[in-house]
Amino acid sequence: MSNVLDSKIPEGPLKDKWTNYKSHVDLVNPANKRSIDVIIVGTGLAGGSAAASLAEMGYNVKAFCFQDSPRRAHSIAAQGGINAAKNYQNDGDSVFRLFYDTIKGGDYRAREANVHRLAEVSANIIDQCVAQGVPFARDYGGLLDNRSFGGTQVQRTFYAKGQTGQQLLLGAYSAMNRQIGLGKIKMYNRHEMLELVVVNGKARGIIARNLVTGELERHSGHAVVLATGGYGNVFFLSTNAMGSNASAAWRAHKKGAFFANPCYTQIHPTCIPRSGDYQSKLTLMSESLRNDGRIWVPKNMEDAIAIREGRLKPTDLKEEDRDYYLERRYPAFGNLVPRDVASRAAKERCDAGYGVNKTGEAVYLDFDAAIMRYGQEKANLLHETNASEARIRELGEAVVESKYGNLFQMYEKIVDDNPYKTPMMIYPAVHYTMGGLWVDYNLMTTVEGCFSAGEANFSDHGANRLGASALMQGLADGYFVLPYTIGGYLAADIRTGKISTDLPEFVEAENDVRRRLEHFINNKGTKSVDHFHKALGKVMWDNVGMARNEAGLKEAIVEIRRIREEFHRDVFVPGTINEFNPELEKATRVEDFLELGELFAIDALHRTESCGGHFREESQTEDGEAMRDDVNFTYAAAWQWTGNPQEPVLHKEHLEFKEIELKQRSYK
């Protein structure tokens, strides 16, 4: 492991880097691939596509997921779409424009070379998925349709109603299943990675726990790929599945993999507001709804109070009494500003007292204008020149249902309110994490042979991810990047042979895991794991959430340490090790979150600028926008574990911008 951050970016012009890299990277011939084992942890879009691709190429793949099936990976929850620079709408899109929008959307805190590569391969992803049978939406002529997403002025988002993630995951899963049937992928469902095994400085395996029997298992490979998603559940309440966790990445971090930019966390603006303290997760409403939904709050405080108290309905308010605040503040982009901008604007209105639900933490997402517009277009198409308002509304609702039907249905089931008749209520919530394991251009961490893909790494989104780019990055990494870059590493392993799991490093790692589990089972505490997870989440949301300041962050660090000490002293985990034990699973994950949460706050404290999803109250413009400090903070902050969570060591990867000029973001 090197303490010098070498990002291994290829030489040459930006537009030629990836092409030249592929032309010169070391290869493994097909016969030799059969003697090389690759472990892939996580089977969402990044892990599933990587497993399918590497197995198709001839490697022996061992794939692990803690769910009962790879189909249950959290990628399935992605709703709105996937970006690609195909310019199907003839509206001026290009590889460069997707590259530019992604860099700007990330507030100039991403690595140019990685983002340009992502934009280049984006078009291939769509072709790959269509060939797999993914049922993307199509326009009236049968061609693939596109819609708009935040932070762009072109339509480049391909989608399958409001269930794009599910359809893409089923495509990757079908490709995986073919390889499972051929015996090229050995699938380990209901297994959780609890330790990375490093032999002579190289990642050579993992310790996994069979979640059904409780048995600890040693698995070896010539390389390990971590594709285990993000760490949003450090906040307890988030849009992530309740099982989503950061343990695999955190165990790698404690074995030497640097963790980069943990404070870059995305707050998604269109989430169903929480209804009480008993809630265990939040539900996302797709950003695609901002295409046609207009976001507003009452213009007058007395109207907001009347709505909160149930004396007034939103539909009672005249147009002139509504504040369409995104359209007012950001006329160029309106409701389609990036997520961090939209989230802070909603918080500002609610903090000022204009929130519309009982807690005062909600704004409206209103489809009335879109329903009437689409209805009029449909009436014109049907030559219904004298259509009544009721008929126009009926036609418009049918059009909206065809585009967003499952999202409207989901909202009505959760809230018990018909969003065709009454505006949806939304509020920002923790969603995606741009930080993660630091990786170089090859997607390798600072531990040799340990790669990281998708949301688990830090590489492509800077300080804020544009909507519909998560699916793009996950599939880019798995289908089109790792298959090249991992070969360059594995070319040196063709004579290594099978790696024994009897090596002392495997024995030691397994013993470490067993001691950790026994600590929880033998601890005679009085409080549940969830008690501590909720306590951590409250500190994170209150002090390290949508807006941060020095005093709050210092308070958070002290409080997280206190919660962690109490957790180890007073947590109660029922049952035994050698059985199905969900509370034990949760305990190991929350233990990792309690260390990660502190690093998160330390990172947010050290970065005294505001950028993207990281907003420091001390660093803002006169009108409340994020203000970067390019002189002092144009770098990725990569943290090294020292054995003490209170004393991480900071390493900097300085970011160079040769193609794009650094300037203050504006969506006005």
User: Structural class of the secondary structure composition?
Assistant: alpha+beta
Radius of gyration: 25 Å
Average pLDDT level: 96
Percent of residues in beta strands: 5-15%
From the N-terminal CA to the C-terminal CA, the straight-line distance is 45 Å
What is the CATH architecture descriptor of the largest domain? 3-Layer(bba) Sandwich
CATH superfamily of the largest domain: FAD/NAD(P)-binding domain
Shape: globular
The unreliable regions are: none
Major β-sheet annotation = 5 strands, parallel
According to CATH, what is the topology of the largest domain? Answer: FAD/NAD(P)-binding domain
Look at the structure and give the CATH class of the largest domain.
Answer: Alpha Beta
Q: Tell me the number of helical segments per DSSP (H or I, 4 or more residues long).
A: 18
What fraction, in percent, of the residue positions are helical?
Answer: 25-40%
Q: How many strand segments? A: 19
Number of domains: 3
Strand order, largest beta sheet: 5-2-1-9-17
EC number: 1.3.5.1
Domain Fumarate reductase/succinate dehydrogenase flavoprotein-like C-terminal: 533-667
Membrane topology: Peripheral membrane protein
Domain FAD-dependent oxidoreductase 2 FAD-binding: 37-471
